[in-house]
Design goal:
Layout lengths: L8 H14 L10 H4 L4 E7 L2 E7 L8 H14 L15 E8 L3 E3 L11 E6 L2 E5 L9 H12 L8 E5 L1 E5 L10
Antiparallel strand pairs: 1-2, 1-3, 3-8, 4-7, 5-6, 5-7
Helix pairs in contact: 1-3
Length: 181
Amino acid sequence: MQLIPNINPARFAREVITAALDSGSLPDPPAEEFYRQRAACFVSIKMDGALRGCIGTLEPAEVNLGAELVRNSQSAAFFDPRFNPLSRAELPRLRFSVDVLSLPELVNSHEELDCRKYGVIVGCDYRRGVLLPDLEGVDNVEHQLEIACQKAGISSAEKFDMHRFTVVRYDEDWEPGQARG
């Protein structure tokens, strides 16, 4: 059964970052069942439509989703190695989204993937790469796998494992009562 939040997770991620920039005193997660479940998540931050930070977990690393969101919000804002840490001046131009992940499942072929429906995790030895589903500019499974392999440092000649997962995506415009898929 999918839990539905009463408080928007993307807005909570913004609240965490605003508090971190303003006072350093982070808010407690909302006291509702959605935030008490154990789940992995990704927090994505865009500025003027371009990626500004994105960090997440593939399996839960914290005691519950609320703590996971606090951790991943800060990581996306301040510790994504691709970007400088966020500043207070950038906040008005930022848009937050949160993806809550299902448990990954092993797949045996490309035919079991769909870049709109499933995120993908590729692995070879100790290297792993991940790409969320339904991303702008990623229009087919081959492109999705190519990006995930590139992130992992896996060459096209290497054999790799594939896992798929689904997400429930929340952006800042989502309101309780709206369907999520």
